[in-house]
Amino acid sequence: MKSDTIQNLRGICALMVFLSHSLLMYRNEVIGDLYHSPLHFFFDGAIAVNIFFAISGFFYYKKDELSAKKYVKGLFRKTIKIYPPPYSGFADLHGFMQYAPALFRSRPF
User: What global pTM score does this model have?
Assistant: First the structure.
């Protein structure tokens, strides 16, 4: 179902996001002038992300598979995939913040 043309558009969007992030590292007059020119479209990451999500949604939608049961099952799978990394990161950070003062406490000689 995935056509090469749509995949190419997704690649262009990914490149636009990369350019947007790369140009944000540089704050000078030339880059500032580019943001107010028509060329801004080619490195506008916000537009590219919206297009990328719309294309991804296009591939997820399958008319014959649309049902409440499959929707809930897919939502559960995505939740299991998305939420554990940030929560484990927060737990690691909390543990580090609890025990870090003991690691960096100055000791008398």
Answer: 0.50
